[in-house]
Structures are given as structure tokens and as C-alpha cells.
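Side project, low priority. Logging it here so it doesn't get lost.
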Amino acid sequence: MEKKVILTVLIPVHNSENYLSALMKTLPIDERVRYLFVNDHSTDDSVSLIRKSKREDFVVEHSERSGAAATRNWGLKFVSSEYVSFVDSDDYLISDEFIAAVDLLEKNIHSFQLFNFSQHASEETSSENLILQVLNLITTAGFIAGPMSKFYSVKFLNEYKVRFPENLDRGEDLIFNLRVLANNPSVNSVRLSWYMYRYNVKSLSKKIGYDVISNHKSFIQAVDDILDDNSVVFAATSMAIYNDLRSLKGQGVDRAMLNKVRKEWISTISLFKVLISKYLNLKHKIWISMLFFGFVRGTQYDSTQTQDTFSKL
């Protein structure tokens, strides 16, 4: 008897010919799973590579919009399974572990399934706690703020109109998960790792190509629209400034631009409120305080690295 497709793996594709072959080799054939490749105006041989595989469980759709967020949203229109998962075209899966994760879908009916999550207490998987983790206000081993290594109920996403924000160049993954968690999904966490995330050398060394101030404002507005707790929104604003400035410094933004961004951003927060915030730890309070006096510590990465590395999620 043919099994019902219960999971769609949605894969945005944009000029990914150098990575797709490696990914496709790790996508196991299983009657319960189909793989939806959503082409975002690729000009290379990405689509041809997918079609040459002649796999019946590979489906190609073409997005009418551009960007990872818009392409994922477009692809969701074609998802008819109970669950959806998002995979980037330059990453790959651990096939056996992935099938083990799919097996759990038939046994555990939840709106939001987390994997590779070190579950020590039930409180860690409450929506309130996970929101703080998405915002990097607390950390738990194995938790990834983005959509990787997760299964989402399609009914839940549609019922609460959860989609990726298309007005952000950075932070759209976090906003997507905040929108999920703000609607109190039933959560199941499993210590199972099936996703291999690529740290792309080209991305690490790539210069900032978007308006960082505008993106920051849009990100914080999105957080504010989702959350009711002003103290959490303030802490999230402070952490976003802390993380973004470190990233800008690490990617070689010139001093004049860095100071312009710093002055613009710190004008939106109160140092006193930073120091008394219950959601910021001591390290973060120290570093955010130092931003007020012009000191910015950059995120470190190995500029001599010549090969991509992977992290098991």
C-alpha cells in the first residue's frame, strides 16, 4: 500500500549548481517525503541538474519573486503535506537520521518539531523560553534560531498566516520562528541531528550589500509587532545592536560607517535600561555599555580559511 506524503522539504534554489549534486545525494527516497525545489531566477544549470536526476519525488516550481524569504513563501503555496521543512541548497542531510526524524512524525502530532535540542526540562520547550532563545537572550545547547532542522505543521502556518518577512535582508529566519512561537504551538523536541549546515567561505568574507540601518529598524519593528512584553522587545533591540555591530566590524566596514551606525543605533536604547534588564546577562551588559563609549568588538572568523566547513545541527 502506497504511503501518504506527510512531509515536504522546501528548498529555495538560486544559482546553486556547485552545491546541488552534493545535497541531492543525501535526500533519501521515501514515499512519505517529497522535495520541492523552488527556483529563484537561476541563470546557471541548477534546474537542469535537478531534472536530470529524473526522481519522481523531486518537484520544481519557479518563484515569481526574488530572495530567500519570498521564494520560501512562494513555495508554501505548493505544499499539500501535513508538515514542511526548510533546507538551504548549499547544505545537506544525514539520510538515516532524517528518516528517523520522519518516522517520529507519524508517532508525535505537534505543530513544531525541534531536532538536536538538548532537553533538560520541560520549561525549555515552552513558547516563552524558545522566544528568548530565538532572540539570543538565553542559550541552550543544540537550539538553532533559524528554520533549519525543524518540522512545521502546514495547517498551523496557514491558520496563523505565518510567513517569512520579505522586507528584511538579515533576520528573516528569526522573525519567522518568532511568529510561530507567538501563537503557542505544541512543541516536541528530539535529540536527533540530521542537518549539516555549511559555513560558506564566500559568505563569511562577503561585504555588507544592504542598508544595515534600515534593515535593523525593520527587524526591531517586526519584533515589536509580534511581542507584547516591552522589556523583552527592549532586550532584543539591545542584543540586535550588539550582534549587528560585531558582525559589521568583523566584515571590515570602514570606521566612519561603523561610527555612523553605532550612533544611530545607540540613540534608540537607554544605557540605564540595559543595566537593569533581567533579560541581558552580565557579558552582554558590559559589551553593550562599551558601545556607548565607541568601542566595538568584531566577530572573529578565519580570513585565511579557503574551504567551507560544516556544522551538524
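Brief comment: The chain is about 40% helix and 15% strand.
Revisit when time allows.
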